[in-house]
Specification:
The complex is a heterodimer of chains A (about 220) and B (about 220). Chain A is built from nine helices and no strands. Chain A has about 220 residues and is an all-alpha fold. Chain A has a single domain, classed as MetI-like fold (Orthogonal Bundle). Chain B has one domain: MetI-like (MetI-like fold), CATH 1.10.3720.10. The chains are: A mainly alpha (about 220), B mainly alpha (about 220).
């Protein structure tokens, strides 16, 4: 092997990588907040008795769950500006693509959780005179979040990982910066290894939390 | 709106798309088979009492589940040739990357289905004097696979979707060909939509079949 491992240039470029990491975190955290909240709304729409609500919501979920995240991102980047004549900041576009994806996956998680809530509770809400919104907010939502939490965390981790795809449409996230740094320094091994380790260092604690949550829920 | 949507031109390119789809399906199929084998072996190794074997396999699984597939692919495409000292084609690196990814997620599936097999069965094997390979192939494997089938199906759908990433290392799969045609013809809306529809037409029935298989299985083994 003629390649000498030398982390000097990669470590010198650590600032660049941190800048990228900031963008990655910004993209993922914003998408997670949007995904967790709107995912619940979409789940309610899917379960609504009105076809007008459930049909679009179901199609939305199926489309985003059954196509590669890469084509969703590329589609939104190239086609949204052309079709609607809107030109948004690349990061906003990235958040849009990632959160739509996450909303679809979270809605599925919420739906499964809501189905696990005993029907008797809904009858009790009616008996107590709660209206639809009160029932959803005070009875269904807290339990749905609790039951869906492990899956929501897992989905959050995967959107953090999927966020690396935005590098392909030239958003300057961790992945993009890593690719650039490796080309500039001719140090692919060191750079890509460091980038992978940064992703791993963030995902691992989250994975641990998710499995702990699952264990606790099983006990409860 | 100044963009005219016209899907008719797609007819001129259907054979190129078909070729791309074949590459996508080929690579998915190959990595599916390799990944299933790898995942099963890794799942068994993680149950091993040898702490080194356990640590190495656990680290492998956690690492490949904890990092983006794109960086795995790039690492193998750009770094592995430097370490090995010889070139590897983008096809080989794509297969290695996706197989390792699939192996990691599949091993988790097998692990949870192995856990679901009750301890009594292990005791029964000891009582009957069944050990080693016979135990694995005649007692554990059939049950573990049966229980794992629904999750394995959704793992396969994930693999199929992740396979679009190989376009990033220049493999001419469905995604790559779609992107190329869309930039040559300046018709991204139609082309990318068509590509998305093709992916959807394959992934949707598979995703749907997961819950169908689940119901059938629950009925069959009365879990």
């Amino acid at each position: 092997m003629s390649y000498d491992i030398d982390f000097f240039y990669t470590l010198k470029g650590i600032d660049t990588l941190m800048e990228g990491l900031l963008v990655t975190l910004q993209l993922s955290l914003t998408s997670i907040v949007i995904g967790v909240s709107l995912g619940f709304v979409v789940a309610l729409m899917v379960m609504s008795p009105s076809k007008l609500l459930s049909w679009p919501a179901t199609s939305f979920i199926e489309i985003f769950r059954c196509t590669p995240a890469l084509i969703q991102i590329v589609w939104i980047f190239y086609c949204v500006p052309m079709l609607f004549n809107v030109f948004l900041d690349p990061i906003v576009m990235g958040v849009l693509a990632l959160s739509l994806n996450l909303i679809a996956f979270n809605a599925e998680a919420y739906r499964a959780a809501i189905q696990a809530i005993p029907k008797a509770q809904l009858d009790a809400s009616v008996a107590l005179g709660l209206n639809k919104i009160q029932t959803n907010v005070y009875v269904v939502l807290p339990q749905a979040i609790r039951l869906a939490l492990p899956v929501l965390v897992t989905n959050g981790i995967s959107i953090f990982q999927q966020s690396a795809l935005v590098a392909i449409v030239a958003i300057e996230d961790l992945m993009y910066m890593g690719k650039m740094l490796s080309t500039e320094t001719y140090r692919p091994i060191e750079t890509f290894t460091v980038v992978a380790l940064i992703y791993f260092a963030i995902a691992l604690p989250a994975m641990y939390i998710s499995s702990q949550l699952e264990k606790r829920l099983k006990v409860a | 709106m100044s963009y005219n949507v016209n899907f008719l031109f797609l007819l001129d390119y259907w054979d190129a798309l078909l070729e791309g789809l074949m590459t996508t399906l080929g690579i998915t199929g190959l990595c599916l088979i390799l990944g299933l084998g790898l995942g099963f072996v890794v799942a068994l190794l993680r149950l091993s009492s040898n702490p080194v074997v356990k640590a190495v396999t656990t680290l492998y699984v956690e690492f490949f589940r904890g990092t983006p597939v794109l960086i795995q692919l790039f690492w193998i495409f750009f770094c592995l040739p430097l370490i090995l000292g010889f070139e590897i084609s983008n096809f080989v690196s794509a297969v290695i990357a996706l197989t390792l990814y699939m192996g990691a997620i599949v091993s988790e599936t097998f692990r949870s289905s192995l856990r679901a097999i009750e301890k009594d069965q292990m005791d029964a094997c000891v009582a009957l004097g069944i050990g080693g390979f016979t135990k694995i192939f005649y007692v554990i494997l059939p049950q573990a696979i049966l229980r794992a089938i629904p999750t394995l199906l959704s793992n396969s759908v994930s693999l199929f979707k992740e396979s679009a990433l190989v376009s990033a290392v220049g493999m001419s799969d469905l995604m790559y060909i779609g992107q190329n045609i869309s930039s040559v013809t300046f018709k991204p809306v139609e082309m990318l939509t068509a590509v998305a529809v093709i992916y959807f037409l394959i992934a949707f029935p598979l995703t749907r079949s997961v819950s169908w298989v689940e119901r059938k299985l629950i009925h069959k083994i009365a879990l």
